[in-house]
Amino acid sequence: MKTKFKSILKDVLVGGGIGCAVIVPGISGGTIALITGAFKKIVDAVDKLFSKLFWKNLLILLPFGIGAILAVAGLYFPITLAFEHCMLAIVCLFAGFMVGSVPSVTDNIKGGKLKATNIIGLVVGFVVVILFGVLSLLFNLDKQVQGMFDSNPIYLYIILLIVGMISSMGLIVPGFSGSMLLMVIGFYDKILALVKGMKTDFGWSFLRLLTFAVGVAVGFVIFSKLMKYMFEKHPRTTNCVVLGFLVGSIIAIFVNSQMFAYFGYYASYSKLNNLDYVLSPIFSLLGLAGSLAIYFYSKKQAKKLENA
Q: What is d(CA 133, CA 265) in angstroms, rounded to the nearest whole number?
């Protein structure tokens, strides 16, 4: 009974880490699951969810879900406040976390010479993420998305559904941050604002949030099955793509229309936000230290299991 309780508590904590990926740009839920050893357990449960073993697999996923919900609820207001007052420092925190996550992925690539398919996967993963950032700058997506939210066209809900599906990759695809992608394409702060928006305009805000949530749920199931297949059939190439995602994200989180709009906002004042510049290097190191701590702890736990 005690062992089972510890296992459930661990799953809740891992779910909390995955929940952080929902709201914190730069953190990949898939990476958290991978370095804590919960990745296979989650994708197997999702893969068998729509079968005769529905209730059994739902109970396996429940602790992860509870942890994720608690993390999102607990982080919503701090993250919203931080983005309003020291966005650069918070982004540096996320970047530090991503840098510290690199060893957890490279460990899965070590051993033997890389094949051409592995290198192509690495380059494709890197280029895709960088393109998101560059295109968001070229088309000024932050401003375009704000215009859609203001005018409320019907196609906004189709876009929210698709964006939700794509952002769900961050929950299950190691190295890929769904919330970071939302930030890059200009949806991040708009999605966060929907919670506050329900106080003044409940109907439209709730409908938008629900549409996005449905997209996330559908995408989570689809990408869980895809990741299960890819890691079983093409593990090394998949890890190379993941590494490309991760390294590309470290650049894209700074190079996007929302970050450039933020710098432009402060440049319009004679005195820059000094708090950001003081905290940024400190937060970078904190993110790096936190990520590496999780990595080394997971390696230690894995060795214990091997020697048991």
A: 19
Residue 270 sits at φ, ψ, to 5 deg, of -70, -30
Global pTM? 0.74
- Cβ atoms of 10 and 64 closer than 8 Å: no
Contact between residue 167 and residue 219 where contact means Cβ atoms under 8 Å apart: yes
CA atoms within 13 A on the CB side of 11: 18
Q: Give the per-residue pLDDT at 27.
A: 66
Tell me the pLDDT tens digit for each residue of 211-268: 998 998 888 888 888 888 888 888 888 889 888 888 888 888 787 776 776 666 554 4
Domain that holds residue 270: 2-307
- Ramachandran bin of 186, using left for φ above 0, alpha for ψ from -120 to 50, beta for the remaining angles: left
Burial track 15-33 (b if 16+ CB lie within 10 A, e otherwise):
bbbbbbbbbbbbbbbbbbb
- Cβ burial of 267 (10 Å; 0-12, 13-18, 19+) is exposed
As a whole number of angstroms, the distance between CA 108 and CA 77 comes to 36
Contact 68, 19 (CB under 8 A): yes
Contacting residues for 29 by C-beta, under 8 A, at least 6 apart: 17, 18, 19, 20, 21, 22, 170, 171, 172, 178
Domains held by the chain: number: 1
